[in-house]
Amino acid sequence: MSAPWFKKIGRYVSATLCLGLALGCFVFWLTLARDFSPASLVAAAVMSLLAAQFAGRPFKGPHGERFGRLLLRPDLLVLLVALLLVQSYVAAFVFIARMLSGRYKPGIVRIRTRLESPLGRAMLANMISLVPGTLSLWMEDRNIIVHWFHIKTSHGTHAGDLMKRPLERLLARLLG
Question: What is the 3-state secondary structure (H, E, C) of the chain?
Fold first, then answer.
């Protein structure tokens, strides 16, 4: 008896993503080595396939298809990185100004995320930590406990909107 069609497609997508990862590793190797001798090409191919086999395990898990969408939607990934950079620079200047003036009120806030994927929630928590003045302390289910350098509100919904709304929207589009 053959596997259902969606399992066959899942294996195809997983294999395609693994081969894509191997190809990316191969190109990265060639870019760094700049050696196109046959021995180097064979070594690059073997090492790239091995790296894809071992590092590609997240692609094969229960959320592997969501992780693979990161590679399939580079436009959203670039937009997410750009948004994170802009937020980080703005927050850094505000952080420095508050630090030098002495006008800050640190506190801990619990925010709730709407993201379904555990990978998306982990990425959101890490992105919150990358923005100066915030640090993700703990994550349980859909809640993220955040230390905020200058707490503007202790209300979780409003604090979450201030901290995570644009990042969460893009992650939801990216990871489903």
Answer: CCCCHHHHHHHHHHHHHHHHHHHHHHHHHHHHHCCCCHHHHHHHHHHHHHHHHHHCHHHHCCCHHHHHHHHHCHHHHHHHHHHHHHHHHHHHHHHHHHHHHCCCCCEEEEEECCCCCHHHHHHHHHHHHHCCCEEEEEEECCEEEEEECCCCCCCHHHHHHHHHHHHHHHHHHHHC
Mean pLDDT of 32-51: 89
Measured distance CA(46)–CA(6) in Å, rounded? 30
- CB neighbour list of residue 73: distance below 8 Å, 6 or more residues apart: 174
CB-hemisphere CA count at 13 Å for 78?
Answer: 4
Question: How many residues appear in the chain?
Answer: 176
Q: What is the pLDDT of residues 140-153, one digit of tens each?
A: 988 999 998 888 87
pLDDT-derived band at 20 (thresholds 50, 70, 90) equals: confident
Tokens found for residue 9 = 């497609």
CB burial readout 43-57, b (16+ within 10 A) else e: ebeeebbebbeeebe
Q: Return the percentage of the chain with pLDDT > 70, whole number.
A: 82
**Do residues 113 and 146 lie in contact, with contact meaning Cβ atoms separated by under 8 Å?**
no
